[in-house]
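Deliverable D4.2, example record:
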Amino acid sequence: MRAKCSTTPSRLGGITKPSKFRARGVYQPTLNTTRTANTIRKVDRKSTRTPADHVPLRICLLSYRSNPHCGGQGVYLKNLSRALKDLGHAVEVISGPPDPQIDRDIPVFHLPALDLYNPEDPFRVPTLEELMEPINLMEWIGVSTMGFPEPFTFGLRAYLFLRSRLHTYDIVHDNQSLSYGVWAINKKAATIATI
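Output generated by the structure prediction step:
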């Protein structure tokens, strides 16, 4: 069955979205650099093969908290990284504690944090040495004043870690931190966010 699809140009400069369609399968918009209406390609859900014009991307996945057992971020990170790797992309994961359970063929960089929401030692008091680090101090003050500073402090740590490496990635994908650090990354590298 052929899809009946009408497209309307969006404000995103050449990316179109289907306004109506009837068919099975997934539809992916194609980017048209001439900024006119695009065609929509049908992608078979069962196939893991990529189109002939596929160019592998270097993708960095960010997650401020990657608990593999609750909350969803760790599960999302594991499944997304595996799917992207299976499509032929080079994937690296940058995560705060707790550590994600990612397949061994995908590199994981663990960013240090105070981990003040650790269920084994919740709301622990950091040492003076730990508080000498400005980002740790911000994290501790945030928790002590009933805030939730982890996304903010993870974003700063991620930016400091990535700023000299951003040229090695085609895209950075942030998972829910939406912080000033990720905003700074966005100014230097293509960035998307999952909320």
